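Standup notes
- DV: blocked on the single-chain target, sequence here:
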Amino acid sequence: MDSTITMQGNEYEIGQLTQEELDRLTNYINQIQNLTVGIDNDLDKIINEEIIAYFNGEISIDECIDYIQNRTEIMVSEKQ
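- DV (later): unblocked, structure below
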């Protein structure tokens, strides 16, 4: 399935995904959008950078999730 996702008013072509992959990505993005309301700007920047890398085809969805988690853990440990 060839799909497009809208994030922060911008449309991104995400290529061919199974319905399961599309549902997983959509749910993940919705969770991120809900979290960004009250989070630090640094975390918002990390999330946006990795999501854009995914949309640009530079990384897989699993890599995107792993990179966000790893970078967030580093950011939190540095701020403690």
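- Follow-up: The chain has three helices and two strands.
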